[in-house]
Every structure is written in structure tokens, then in C-alpha cells.
Amino acid sequence: MPTATLFNYTFSLTQPNPDAHVPATIRKLVIVGGGSAGWMAAMMLADALLPKGIEIEVLESPVVGIIGVGEGSTPWLRGFFDKLGIEEAEWMPACNATYKCGITFDRWSTKPGFESYFHPFASMLDNLTMTQFVHNVNARVAGADVHAHPNRFFIASTLADQNLAPKPNRNFPFDVWYGYHFDAVLLGQFLQKKAIARGVKYTSCHVKEVRQDERGDIAAVVTDSGETIAADFFVDCTGFAGLLIQQALKTPFVSYSSNLFNDAAVAMPTPIGDDIPSQTVSTAMRHGWSWKIPLTERFGNGYVYSSAFCSADEAERELREHLGLLDSPTPARHLKMKIGRVTKHWHRNCLAVGLSQGFIEPLEATALLFIQHTLSNFVEFVEAGDLGETAQDRYNQRVNEHFEGTRDYIVTHYKTNNRTDTEYWRANASNANLSEPLQELFRMWLSGRSIVPEVTKQTLGRGYPVFSWYCILAGMGIFPDPESLRAPTKKEARYKMSEIDNLLQRSALNFRKQKELLADIPRKTPEEALQIYFW
Ligand SMILES: Cc1cc2nc3c(=O)[nH]c(=O)nc-3n(C[C@H](O)[C@H](O)[C@H](O)COP(=O)(O)OP(=O)(O)OC[C@H]3O[C@@H](n4cnc5c(N)ncnc54)[C@H](O)[C@@H]3O)c2cc1C
Fold it and tell me: β-pairing, 102-106 with 28-32?
């Protein structure tokens, strides 16, 4: 009997190693770019390297703006702030942030009963309902008519359904994982202030040239005012431009366009209502999907689409229609996306972090997690004192596997759709460009065999844990046709849904409305918060 484990990884990031011997070859590190990636890199590297006497400087162009979207996170962001000693009471109000229980996927499937499902963040409480979920899913795959839709098995979906924040009262004995929604521009500004206060140097300047030495390593960058800034190590956070890693070092880029078709987005805000939801909603549209992300002051909305199937004007019109903004003067922002990854995230004396290293479209809001993962792994290698080529190869393999596993999970959303309304959805459903591990996973599922070995042994599990794979396949209704289902055996029907409903509804009484809880977070000014930090 296959089982689904909840967690494939530990939650917290690696702690800095006080005995670490950072190679003496790194005395100065320059980060080019001041978006979320640049400032997250500054914070994480400052934490590990400033105490070792290494100088860190961030260069940010005054003429190239940040991407300014990216408003949803995974639970890993909680680990980022915890490790840096920054309380929610400080950063959340500063970034108009809200709590996130997971993501609802609406209209991705048209199968009756499966038109919508929720991908929850995990909770310890799920251990009490996971066996039942997996049991029922396996029974339904085997043809038994039992309830196997994920929404009724997880506390996070019960909370999201009622706009409850995933922070329980003190007497609730189970830890609940949660992510956040936040204003991306405010997050960058917040982290910038923090990083500078912690000792990171900041220079506003546009880099116009990257100079390499005779070996091919980056020796210095030259700004448009003619200043040459040298360093021992460079971090490329220049966004899709990939100024150092792609343009200067010519690191090859692997495009994912053959199995992820979306390459553009249009975004616009709408007012937030009286209640603040605790989930992201992703709704399938004619040529892609739209996001709806609740912040304290507004909803962030956007439509991610494929320009091969629809023009920017068509996408904007469809999004406006969807939001009821057809005649509204609210301006729309149009963005292009480059989907794929570089072959080497760490190449020579350069580490690429953020959009410069690659991007797997925003469907599961994983980009900030990649930033964290890229940096925490790098710190681990540097602290081990190993910067050689073999270390770089091992490092790049690790990051690449994370990319591939996550890509395959995102591809699954598209591949399992059964919409027939547009060529876009038909092309996604019939797309045969699937990785070997993903093809094998589908074969296992459809033949009623366990997917657990596929997920845990292959790259698939580097992206998402088994439990998420069960949620997506069950949530999309990848089961035998309803007409062919038979009555369950006594063993198959052993779990009563009413008992699970009861457990989850009673548990939900320990949680408060998101709006109410946020209003209670004691707000600290950044100055107050900084004082607390320096005590
Ligand atoms: C439509 C969309 C939705 C997204 N949604 C999510 C989400 O929900 N969750 C999530 O985690 N991520 C999301 N992302 C991804 C997320 O926005 C990015 O991963 C994140 O913002 C990091 O971006 P960045 O810092 O790498 O790049 P940018 O924000 O583009 O920053 C680039 C920086 O480089 C600087 N720069 C560029 N050229 C030069 C130069 N020559 N000299 C000096 N400086 C230079 C710029 O000034 C800027 O500061 C989304 C992305 C898109 C496109």
C-alpha cells in the first residue's frame, strides 16, 4: 500500500556555520541588481559572510526598474525571515502582507466534481487525514466510487474556504505551514533598508560593461559614469537580462518553451473587499490563467498567457472582462517572460540568482523559493571551503534538479487539463514533450501502481513532495470515468467523510478571520524594529 509523506525537506534554512572557513580568495562580493533577488541575496549573504569580514556591495541601476510583480510565496519565505531574525510584526505591515494557506485552481478541469481544487500547504494535522486521502485516491484509481477530491481532507483548504488565517490559537497543538502574499515593490524596499542597516554597501549605478580577466573570470564591472568596480565574486541579480551570467559569461540557456507555453503577462490591481481571503486563486482563461492575490490594501491580478496563441490586446481585454474592468481607466502593465534556466547557475566566479538564472512561470509562486534555495546551497558550499570545479558541478546539478522537478509539476497542471474550448488548451493536453520521469509517473498512476518511488527517486521529488502530486492528480480528476466506477468494497469504503469533515470543522474553530488577525498584529515602525534588532 503506497503512502504519501508530507515533507520531503526540512523547513528551516541551513544555519551559518561558525567554524566555517570561507576561502581567502573571496574578500569582496558584488551583487548587481536590486530587485527581490538582489536584496534577498544581500540579506542571506550578509548573514553568512559579513561576520567573516567579507565586504558586500549591491549595485542597482537607476534606469532599469525591477519587475515589480511576484506577490505570492511558498512556506519557505517564513524560514527566510525567521532565520534573519525579522518578525512578522515588522515586515508584514511594511509590505501589506497577508497569510496564504495555498492556491485554488479554478476551471482547469471540466470533469464534473473536479472543476476546482485546492493545493494546500501542509500541516501536522494533515497526518490525521493523509492516510484516508491516499486510501480513497488509490481506491478510486482502482475503480471504486469513493470520495477522493483533495479539498475535504486538508485543514488548509478548510481555512482558505472560510477566509481564516493559518495561525492557530495558542492552545492548538499542531503546527500549520503557511506562505504569504505581499507587495513586491515594498518587499524590495524593506529588504534594502535592512541590508544597508546590517552593513551591506549600496551604490546606485548602471553597469554598462563586464570585464573578464585572462582566464575568463569576471574581474570588474564598469558603470556608465566610468567607474570600475572590482570584486572577487559577483552575483548576477539583473533579472531577465542576465547581464553577467548570460551576456558576459555566455552560459547556455535551456528553454522550457516546448512544454511550458506561457511567455507573457498582463497585470492590474482591484480593490480589496471587507473580508481578506487567505488563498491565491488561479483561474484558467482562454489562453492561460489569471491570478488573484489578496494584499491588505488591494488585490493583485494578472493574466499569464502564451503570445503564440493570443495578442497582448486580447489578453488585456479578457482580463478586464474577467475582473469587471472593461470600461475602467485602471492601467494595465504588460510583461514578457523568458521561461527556462541557465545550465550553470554558478559559473566561474559568478552566481546567478533570481530571473537571471531562470524562471518557471508563476503558477505555483516558486520563484522566491528558488532564490532562497540557490543562495542557501551556495552558502553551504562556501562554508565548506569548496569553490572548485567539482563543487560547482555538484552545486549546479542540485539546483538544476530543483528546477526540473518543479517544472514537471507545473507541466502537470497543463498536461492533465481536459478543456477543449481553445487551441491553447488542446495543444497543452496533447503536448508530448514530457520528461521521462513525468511520463513514468503518469504511467504508474494510470495503471494503479504507486507513484511514490517515482517521486522520491527521481527529480520529481526535488520539486514537490508526494502529497502535492497526489493533490494535483486527484484534484484534476485523473480517475476512471464516473460511469465505469463500481460500488466500493467494505475495505475501500472504510473511512467516513463525515468524520473527516467534523475533525476539520472543529479544528477550524481555533483559527481567526485573516482580516481580524492582521488588524491585531502589533505594528512597529522600521525605526523601532531596527532598534530592537541592534539591541
Ligand atoms: C508575471 C509574473 C508573476 C510572478 N509572480 C511571482 C509570484 O507570485 N511569486 C514568486 O515568488 N515570484 C513571482 N514572479 C517572479 C518574481 O517576480 C521574481 O523572481 C523576483 O521579483 C526576482 O526578480 P529579480 O530580482 O531577479 O529581477 P528584477 O526585479 O527584474 O530586478 C532586476 C534588477 O537588476 C537591476 N539591473 C538590471 N540591469 C542592470 C544594469 N545594467 N546595471 C545595474 N543594475 C541593473 C535593475 O535595476 C533591478 O534592480 C513573477 C514573475 C512574473 C514575470
Answer: unpaired
Distance separating alpha carbons of residues 284 and 306, to the nearest angstrom: 13
Contact 253, 341 (CB under 8 A): yes
Q: Give the position of cell 551576456.
A: 247
Nearest by Cα to 218 from 265, 250, 184: 250
**For 217-250, what is each residue's pLDDT tens digit?**
999 999 999 999 999 999 999 999 999 999 999 9
Query: By alpha-carbon position, which residue is closest to atom 20 of ligand 1?
Result: 36
Cα–Cα nearest to 375, from 243, 236, 239: 236
Mutate to test the pocket of ligand 1, among 58, 61, 244 (most ligand atoms within 8 A of CB): 61
Separation between Cα atoms, residue 470 and residue 465, nearest integer Å: 9
pLDDT at 151 over 70: yes
Tell me how far CA of residue 24 lies from CA of 50, 56, 451, in angstroms.
Answer: 14, 15, 46
Options 83, 100, 194, 515, the catalytic residue: 100
Catalytic residue at 100? yes
What pTM does this model have?
0.94
Distance CA 161, CA 158 (A): 5
31 lines ligand 1 (CB under 6 A): no
**Cell numbers standing for residue 414:** 497543463
